[in-house]
Design brief:
The complex is a heterotrimer of chains A (151), B (122) and C (281).
Chain A: H1 17-21, H2 28-54, H3 61-71, H4 74-101, H5 123-148
Helix pairs in contact in A: 2-4, 4-5
Chain B: H1 10-33, H2 40-43, H3 46-54, H4 56-84, H5 88-118
Chain C: H1 2-15, E1 31-38, E2 48-55, H2 62-72, E3 92-95, E4 98-101, E5 114-118, E6 125-127, E7 130-131, H3 134-142, E8 160-163, H4 167-171, H5 174-177, H6 184-188, H7 201-212, H8 219-226, H9 240-244, H10 251-263, E9 275-278
Parallel strand pairs in C: 1-5
Antiparallel strand pairs in C: 1-2, 3-4, 3-5, 6-7, 8-9
Classes of the chains: A mainly alpha (151), B mainly alpha (122), C alpha+beta (281).
Chain lengths: 151, 122, 281
């Protein structure tokens, strides 16, 4: 029977972007991968905007105050709270990933036995995801108290 | 794996990614805390912001944030975009785009820092 | 035989809820609908799904149900299978959206009265549930999946020689050698979903399998192979490969352990296995 000559680089039947965007099927690590990507892209966009927004300082106090009027609004504050949350999650999860990418906290290779639970998907590193989410929520709460607390 | 002329190996690039992540975490934490040494709204007033730029160590801190986050962020974007398509034009284009973007944002941010440092107060 | 079936029926009746559409997990059912993906990619047929009602018992696997459907309902169903005991890796497919081995998945483990069977994603599709594994095998071959040790006398067979390996040495790579090349991890991986040059979790875990093997002394070459723009660094520890692996290989562990060596975080403790020569008498 003739073997298929499908190219190594064929995109036939690849999940594509859908494969990234659906995190729900494979557990917490897949969710953390998805969130790390989303928060990373979001923070990069914020960073570019922030560098541009702070450059209004060089155009004098009027330009700075005009920029503040745009950003120190309800939606501006809500956006900033989102930035606080995403940066906290991205940082905390990033630290967890630096350890796990280096093989730390994943256990040692051994002799697998039924039911063949994966050692690397242990609660020690998985709890890092939950800690990152909790820290992110706490940071957002604190940020809200500062931004809306009228300090 | 195909052979390609490389200036930096991928392992070296990723080590830079991890190091910039940890360093950026420290400096951004300091930057955020500077917003909390006085009431938040007061910290955003023109004069108070300009005074920060006159403080050389703080200006250097801002410059380091700029460089670290630009490298970390755009390298991360490079990684995401490299996974999306694989052909020579796309991959070389992504490399050129991300390096250019890094340089542009660092240059623009540095311009702000230098000009703000030169600004006088009312 | 009839008495046994009656007894199972009695157990079934205890568990089934009144509403037949809401079956609890692990519930026994008399029949189930198998919804099979049908398309002939070579002929360019449009995609469709054919549903078959098949009888099930407590032990019926998805593969059993598919073989029943093929035998008694529609013999044109394209399906690949062999050992029927999770040893060959041939029957990998997406069952209710998750890559699984059909022979290793019992109908009673799955929720709902309809089981959807689709070909593995990220593999070029051929027909119905059959996919092309040549890309997958090519990525594996790129890792040089064999012991490389110039001291081993595979050419000059005048003497018998043996690499001495302790049980502790074997434990370092044993679980990764259990891989049956079923492709479930490759199908689940989010990087493979878009990156055609990424070797995939199976190939990378095999790279670690040989890296960790004390009989192999070609560390530098193995590192060079994976230290690439589309190599090991495109793994982001999404862990999906280890979630779906049916043999406990835990490819994610192998990849991160290998990456630890590239990052310089893991100590280089490997001593190359001593070659002991024996005479042929």
């Amino acid at each position: 029977m003739e073997r298929s000559k499908e190219s190594n680089f064929s995109r036939n039947n690849r999940e594509g972007l859908k494969g990234w965007l659906n995190p729900a099927r494979y557990g917490w690590e897949r969710v953390s991968y998805w969130l790390q990507r989303l928060t990373g892209v979001f923070l990069l966009v914020y960073f570019i905007g922030h560098v541009y927004e702070t450059s209004s300082l060089t155009r004098g106090p009027d330009a700075w105050n005009a920029m503040l009027e745009l950003t120190q609004t309800l939606w501006g504050h809500l956006f900033l709270i989102l930035v606080i949350g995403t940066s906290t999650f991205h940082s905390a999860n990033g630290i967890r990933l630096i350890f796990t990418h280096g093989g730390k906290g994943l256990g040692k290779a051994g002799r697998p036995d039924y039911p063949y639970d994966a050692l690397s998907l242990n609660y020690r590193q998985k709890s890092g995801i939950w800690v990152a989410l909790i820290l992110s929520a706490v940071a957002m709460l604190y940020g809200s108290s500062v931004l809306f607390g009228g300090e | 794996m195909e052979t390609r002329r490389v200036i930096l190996r991928e392992s070296q690039i990723m080590k830079i990614q991890y190091i910039t992540a940890i360093a950026a975490l420290v400096v951004v934490a300091v930057h955020i805390m500077m917003r909390l040494i006085m009431p938040y709204n007061m910290s955003l007033e023109y004069e108070n912001v300009v005074v920060n730029y006159h403080n050389i160590p703080y200006a250097l801190l801002l410059e380091s944030i700029l460089i670290l986050i630009a490298i970390h962020g755009f390298n991360g974007l490079r990684v995401i975009l490299l996974e999306f398509r694989q052909n020579k034009i796309w991959e070389n284009g992504i490399t050129v785009f991300t390096i250019t973007a890094m340089i542009v944002i660092i240059a623009y941010g540095t311009r702000t820092i230098i000009m703000a440092n030169q600004l006088g107060l009312k | 035989m009839m008495e046994i079936i009656k007894k199972i029926g009695m157990i079934k009746n205890k568990n089934v809820k009144d509403d037949n559409n809401n079956n609890r997990k692990g519930t026994l059912r008399d029949n189930v609908i198998i919804k099979v993906f049908r398309a002939n990619r070579i002929k360019g047929d449009p995609i469709s799904y054919d549903s078959f009602e098949v009888p099930v018992q407590r032990w019926t696997t998805v593969l059993d149900a598919l073989i029943y459907a093929k035998s008694y309902r529609d013999s044109s169903i394209g399906i690949r299978y062999s050992c029927r005991m999770a040893s060959c890796g041939s029957c990998g497919m997406k069952i209710n959206g998750i890559p699984r081995l059909a022979c290793y998945t019992k109908i009673s483990e799955l929720e709902g009265s309809t089981i959807t069977c689709e070909p593995l994603t990220n593999f070029p599709h051929i027909r119905d549930l059959v996919t092309d594994f040549s890309q997958f095998f090519n990525h594996h071959k790129e890792m040089k999946p064999y012991i490389h040790n110039e001291n081993s006398d595979i050419i000059d067979r005048q003497k018998l020689s043996e690499f001495k390996q302790s049980p502790e040495d074997v434990d370092k790579y044993l679980q990764f050698s259990y891989c049956i090349r079923c492709g479930l991890c490759y199908s689940a991986c989010p990087t493979v979903a878009t990156d055609t040059k990424f070797p995939g979790p199976q190939a990378l875990s095999q790279a670690y399998r040989y890296y960790a093997d004390t009989r192999d002394n070609d560390k530098k070459e193995r590192i060079n192979i994976v230290d690439d723009r589309h190599g090991i660094w495109r793994c982001h520890f999404a862990g999906s490969c280890s979630v779906v692996c049916p043999k406990g290989v835990d490819p994610a562990l192998g990849i991160q352990l290998l990456r630890g060596h590239l990052m310089g975080l893991s100590k280089n403790e490997k001593k190359i296995a001593k070659l002991e020569n024996r005479s042929k008498n």
